[in-house]
Predict the 3D structure of the following.
Amino acid sequence: MSLLALAVTGRGLIDPQEPAVRADDEALLRGRAAFETLKIYGGRPFRLDAHLDRLAASAEVMALPAVERRRLEVLTGLVLPKAEQGDAVLRLVWTAGPQGGPPSGLALLSELPAWIEDVRLRGASAVSLLGVRATAPWLLPGVKSTSYAVNMAADAEAKRRGADEAIFVDGDGIVLEGSVTNVWWRVGKTLRTPALDLGILAGVTRQTLLELAGPCGYVVEEGAFPLADALSADEVFTSSSVREILPVVELDGRRYELGAAAAVLQQALHERAAKV
Ligand SMILES: Cc1ncc(COP(=O)(O)O)c(C=O)c1O
């Protein structure tokens, strides 16, 4: 993803090639930073408030300095013109800062990766991998921290096994989430998705889909579902802000058709995003 613009607290817009974080920032040394990734539609961020709410909540659970929302909104305003009223990706990062020092806020604007639409057309393949069910606060349930090395390693393992993405399943075989997505499957007119009390990320797209599902003719069940339930479903798909709704056509070797729900919800999501 090539970086189009970068703005940093205390400095404003800077050259995207320039260093922006201190070498002794705990974000770099220990992964102590919270972040958000969201999509820019036609130059406008979709559900920025919900992302800033989640960023503030993540920072609180990680005991980072409180997120200064207004400053991040200003940084967002600085990088957005570089989207030139088109689609792009916005990352917001809030770091711990050096010990005893001030946190840093960053807004990074990048190009939308081209591969997403190709995979949407053909459908993604996925493998289930063992993941951790975050049942205690220090396991950071629902937190989007930059300590994403485990998620990235799972992604690499999925690729090593010839799949596009990883879906985490806990030691009891309960489906959790993707390495960077929430997971859904359809049985008839019912959509199932893992419940938030499993310690998964409360996806902003997941929340949008909960709102859109009813009007699109689907009932949603949230819960603790075994992998076998997804494997016997009619359709599987994932959701995230940047990838939006991606159909899954293969999970652990089981094949699915490109599904109707993924297509209808993708369309509804775009209509919702066009209204903001
Ligand atoms: C682990 C994980 N789950 C779910 C999601 C989807 O969240 P959202 O819809 O807010 O992008 C993400 C997004 O990056 C993620 O990293």
Summary: The longest helix spans residues 260-274. The chain has a mean pLDDT of 97. DSSP finds eight helices and 15 strands in the chain. Helices lie at 26-30, 48-61, 69-79, 115-122, 149-160, 204-213, 227-231, 260-274.
